[in-house]
Amino acid sequence: MKHLTSDQLLSYQQNKLSNKESLLLEQHLNECSSCKAELELLNELHEEWMNPPEFHFSNEIMNEIMKQTELIERKEQVIEKKSNNHNSKKVRFIHLVLAAAATFLFFQFQLAERISNSNRHVVQTIDQTSSLIEKSEKIKLSIPIPKIFKENKK
Predict the structure, then answer these.
(1) pLDDT (tens digit, 9 = 90+) per residue, 81-95?
(2) Under a CB-based contact definition with an 8 Å cutoff, are residues 45 and 6 in contact?
(3) Of 19, 45, 46, 104, which residue has the fewest beta carbons closer than 10 angstroms?
């Protein structure tokens, strides 16, 4: 015997099935105690969900819960403030130290002069190259052709 699925039982419970499907399902439920028990459980769960029991905490318990909650919130706020202040001061200090170290190294190794020297060197190299190109364009190269090749042409 094939048992009903939870989806089928839920659809039956919520009246989403056609009359024919409902009749077939009811017939199966009359014959199958396992599926009938499953439907009863679903009905109980549905009833529990729709009508939850009222539960009240005593004032003592509620006050204790509120105190504990407030203490936790205060501790979290204090920790958050400390971590924000500590991190921002620490980060600023690290940035300051790194900037000072970079400045020191920049001047220690005379990087400003080296950069300007390398720029001058590049400019000089470009000037020399362009002047050599101009000179080579002015010079007409004539390659002497050997007599052997001249005789073969005749």
Answers:
(1) 776 666 677 888 888
(2) no
(3) 19
Is residue 25, in this structure, part of any structural domain at all? yes
Q: Tell me whether residue 74 is in a domain.
A: yes
pLDDT tens per residue, range 54-71: 878 888 988 998 999 999
DSSP H helices, 109-144, are 111-138
- Residue 15 sits in the same domain as residue 39: yes
Q: How far apart are CA 25 and CA 34, in angstroms?
A: 13
Is the domain of 38 the same as that of 10?
yes
Closest by Cα among 45, 21, 41, 23 to 33: 41
Q: Please, which residues have CB within 8 angstroms of residue 31's CB and are 6 or more apart in sequence? A: 1
